[in-house]
Amino acid sequence: MTLLFGWPMVSGVLQAFGGPEGLTTANFTRMSQDPYFWSSVGNTLLLIVVMIPIQFVLALAMALLIRAKPRGRLPTSTSGPSRSRSATSPPAWCG
């Protein structure tokens, strides 16, 4: 199991630092000088800073809604069979 996970990791590190003249950091130097790299890093960090808190709040709200005990009958998909035709039902895709 160690070989299954360890070998690809070691191989990836050797390829990242490898070059025609042996081990080098030329790949990382070239990458850090690319203007598209830094704009990509900025976009990724922006998505992380914005999307993770939004997803956390939405997940927490949904969990609290699921946990809450409703007072009346709510129309949910778990309360009974669905009235809409599913793509997996045979009449939808046969004939």
Concise synopsis of the structure shown:
With 95 residues, this protein is mainly alpha-helical. The chain has four helices and two strands, in the order αββααα.
What can you see in these coordinates?
The protein is mainly α. It has a domain at 11-65. The protein is built from 4 helices and 2 strands. The chain has a two-stranded antiparallel ribbon. The radius of gyration is 26 Å and the shape is elongated. The two termini are 49 Å apart.
The largest beta-sheet arranges its strands as: 1-2
Main sheet characteristics: 2 strands, antiparallel
SSE order: HEEHHH
Give the fraction of residues assigned to helices: 55-70%
Mean pLDDT: 81
Measured by DSSP, the beta-strand proportion falls in under 5%
List the helices and strands and how they pair.
Layout lengths: L1 H16 E2 L2 E2 L2 H7 L2 H33 L22 H4 L2
Antiparallel strand pairs: 1-2
Note the main attributes of this structure:
95 residues; mainly alpha; 63% helix; elongated
